[in-house]
Amino acid sequence: MDKDLILAIRDQSIPLTGPSDLDRLISQMGNPRFVLLGEASHGTSEFYTTRAEITKKLIKDKGFTFVAVEGDWPACQAINRYVKGYDKESRSARDVLTSFNRWPTWMWANEEIIDLIEWMKTYNESGQSSVKAGFYGIDVYSLWESMDEVIRYLTEIDSPDLEAAKNAFTCFEPFNRQNEEYAVSAGIYNEGCIDEVAKLLTTIQRKKEVYPHHEELNLNLQVNAMAVYNAENYYRTMVVHDERSWNIRDMHMVDALNEIMDFYGSAGKAIVWEHNTHVGDASATDMRDAGMINVGQVIREQNPPGHVYIVGFGTHSGTVIAADEWGVNFDVKTVPKAMRGSWEDAMHKAGAFDKILIFNERNKHLFNQQIGHRAIGVVYKPEYERYGNYVPSLMSERYDAFIFIKQTKALHPLSVTVPVSM
């Protein structure tokens, strides 16, 4: 381990003892339009609660107008409708979170997110801001659910485009709402539905200003149609080009994020919650060598300096919610001590306490050597993590700041029934 690196972390970092210590981080951000908050896993309690505290401060003190997360648009709309008061029936955030029935359900159907949802609803009702804070899902997986939403919306407004949408979606009927079946058919046998959904998306985008705007129905239609188009492309590509499908997914998240920003206009200020692998600039990792991009890189490239601020997260050890294989039941797994010589190991050796490290022009050169940085997915086998869970990274180029929680605990999932078809 490089002793100079440990000394630099010790010298430049500040202790994180509670929510008030986050004020220094927020003051260092300046006035960005995008704040991207990462996580080293999708199943760690402290990553959610710390991001929630930052989010509250950004909304209340800096006028941020929405949260965009690594979740499905249709399911997250249930949260958005609740916090904005469009939903007159749900009595609590806990009721609303039953909408999250796609595996891995624990990413959003968890105890930790409830406090933020209720806080946002109360904040919006207080009238402290003329713009109500929203909550949106920008991921690409909601192929079938977004089709349902497009049909529902066009039916509700008695649109002349309804028949065109039904005809386009008829192409998908043989696949029984199974992503895997469609992926194999479209990717290997070239029996996809790209032409149908492309025509529909073009039609909807051309008529963007014609559709009604009340309760954000126009925005819902636009993003759901985009999700269908990009999800079709994603599933068609994933079985033959894994790197290319990654780029399709992250570009969809960028496009959805920009669509929301356009909806909010000059008031738009985004807080993005996604895994470190999506928000931490890919050009500062070995992803670049594989031709892969991500949300953090593209948003930085699309915006002027100072408009984007990226915060990474990590831990030394603890527990996490994850599964052994895709689609199977989760359990609580032990996160072993960080691998010797890794970024997390250096953060721990610089002082065994929670800390914030802010990168700036004066200190960036101290942290620009390539080093392994741990990433834990929804599928995780701790015994094999040294062989694939550390991403070579230039940390001060990948992030603008880093939050280190020395010992973390597993997320607390809600009990949600997952349909058999999922």
UniProtKB/TrEMBL annotation:
Q: Does the keyword Lipid biosynthesis apply?
A: no
Single Gene Ontology BP annotation: methylation
Q: Where are the transmembrane segments?
A: none
**Cross-referenced CDD domains:** Ere-like
Keyword Methyltransferase in the entry? The reply is: yes
UniProt keywords (A-Z) are: Methyltransferase, Transferase
Annotated GO MF terms = methyltransferase activity
Write one Pfam family the protein is assigned to: Erythro_esteras
Q: What is this protein's name? A: Protein-L-isoaspartate O-methyltransferase
Q: Which organism is it from?
A: Peribacillus deserti
Q: What is the lineage of its organism?
A: Bacteria, Bacillati, Bacillota, Bacilli, Bacillales
